[in-house]
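Task: complex structure prediction.
Instruction: return structure tokens for all chains below.
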Amino acid sequence: MLLIHCPYCEEDRSELEFRWAGEAHIARPENISAISDEEFAEFFFLRNNEKGLTYERWRHIHGCGRFFNAARDTISDKFLMTYKAGLPKQPVPASGEGETR
Amino acid sequence: MVDSGANVATRTLPLSGVHGGSSVVRLEAAAPAERINLRVRAEDVAALSAALGVDLPVKPKTSSSGNGRTALWIGPDEWLVFGDVRTGLVASAAKSGALHSATDVSHRNTAILVSGPGSAAAINTGCPQDLSLDAFPIGACSRTLFGKVEIVLLRTAEDAFRVEVWRSFSDYAFGLLSEGARDAAL
Ligand SMILES: [Zn+2]
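Output:
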């Protein structure tokens, strides 16, 4: 069973309690009615779908209910780190530190 | 016309009259309770705690009791508070004068009391949490999963838990706990 560290519950919990919630750090445009269709499509539909290190939103939906951010390796499925929502994109710690076992 | 009483619905609880378990686990329905789901900002926690007469815990996975009420940490701004019926939890919260949301969920939830030396094993039949005393001591609580349904789990003693579950899921939860109770006795 994959364990995910919830930054609000401050402990590792079963993946069963969590839901994926899409790519992280996508900022809503300041004035959405002023942007072009292409800019809207970029913001609303287009995602990077990285192979390897990716930043995602996750939700501890069957726990504390909070959304948070996670850095995850899409090849190994390893969670490299998690951090609270609202924080800027965090650098991934070197060689497995903060990694969910 | 004589009133036979046949036109009066008799209120029953979701788990009225059930009992179950095994040689190592006892399962029973908890008494009816009043419950609120409470949302409060950090700066207003003290005001709500004073108004309810129970300290809202701010440490994850902890609970506290006072004034006949028990408050369970659910999330950073969310608590489940329960107590005896008709003590007016919503009205108490309102007296705080602080901004909050108190939703009466007395009848949304029901509770199953699980006790006996096989309690943790029975719950672990469907719950992925570490229920060892180190990780989940007396008073620890958490919203989590039990099989296919969401529950709020509270450890009330070394060998006893309260399982809060939505009423429409309570038959399922009781059934799976019964299976777990038998497995725990193997
Ligand atoms: Zn959490």
